[in-house]
Amino acid sequence: MSTNAQLFERAQLSIPGGVNSPVRAFRAVGGTPRFIARAQGAYMWDAEGAKYIDYIGSWGPMILGHGHPAVLDAVLKAAHDGFSFGAPTEREVELAEEIIRHVPSIEQVRLVSSGTEAGMSAIRLARGATGRSKIVKFEGCYHGHADALLVKAGSGLATFGHPTSAGVPAEVVQHTLVLEYNNLEQIEEVFKTQGHEIACVMIEPIAGNMNFVRAQVPFVKRIRELCDQHGALFVFDEVMTGFRVALGSAQSVYTQAIPGFRPDISVFGKVIGGGMPLAAFGTSRKIMQNLAPLGPVYQAGTLSGNPVATACGLATLKEISKPGFYEALGARTKSLVAGLTQAAKTAGVPFVGDSEGGMFGFFFASELPQNYNVVMATDKERFNRFFHGMLDCGVYLAPALYEAGFVSAAHTDADIAATVAAAASVLAKA
Ligand SMILES: *Cc1c(COP(=O)(O)O)cnc(C)c1O
User: Fold this and answer.
1) Residue 157 above 90 pLDDT?
2) I want to staple 18 with a disulfide (CB 3.0 to 4.6 A). Which of 12, 213, 295, 403 is the partner?
3) Which of 55, 142, 326, 402 is catalytic?
4) pTM higher than 0.85
5) Relative to the CA of 117, which ligand 1 atom is closest?
């Protein structure tokens, strides 16, 4: 038995499913997950010494590639100064200032340790600030695994959503309304009937948890208007897109298309921690005043603003704010998608892809899906064959058709060319 398979068997004895986060178990694509021993730059090596070009990048954080020297140095220095104090530090102020500097919609942030925590806290803040209970989310958007957010749409618009996880009582999700992504009629209807009860609308502006689906500009614009008219807050979950698709995050992409556009609350994670457990939520100073210790909305964390994690995040932000960073990253990601598209075309396989900055997606379909149901109806069998074919060629793509992909600054043109060549050979066979 291979070392990966042995480790997986052993892992399943002490850890449920052998993994600490479900997608890692390869359930969607089948086969044995690779146990990663180490990573450097754009590459990872598994427990058997096999090398992979990494397009997961820890699901987004590793925008500089693995082991970037400046980041590694900052982390080692910080570790020498102490792992955690449970008291304020200058570095967390610096990180907050850096985030605020690049994202004009926010005046204050609070640092937490995971995207789940940030999303959950953003909802509590929105509810506390508005004095309302209902929240709107969209099918296929993931905002972490807080109870109130593990919901799928009910049978009709007027009905409440159903929990998507056992252990979440129906009462806990009774205030969560789940609508179809990019569906203007549904959002109009919900605001018409319940607008005065809605605390916030939460969205992944470029949804990366159903592969890669952009919220259409008219959709975002209309939600902004409806929130303003009805006194609801618009929450951008940028845990994945934040500092990944642009230095100003996905909201800067929408501000270009909709002059003056800003979300009310923004949620960050992944890239801002550079691979360490760190996330944040932020908004105007006025709304943030509702948060403890200033206001009545309670929120806290033993390891929040951790000194080693903030050092990692700060060093990462410093590198990605250098001039030309996103132009180069965006161009490389585009060339990957263009190369894959061409390889599929040559093989006569229906294929579409899209990207923004260092985030991309592709589908075995003839046009880009606009919502979750369409994503899930794309060719899963072909995706799974493609995934395993690529893995055998040393290319590590996300192991599920509903996940996005990530290119880092460490990926070279040669890495992209090798990936495209692998895709051409895999698609010719399948
Ligand atoms: C990853 C992710 C989360 C959850 O973050 P964790 O750090 O895994 O808790 C929330 N929202 C979005 C959009 C994400 O991609």
Assistant:
1) no
2) 12
3) 142
4) yes
5) 9
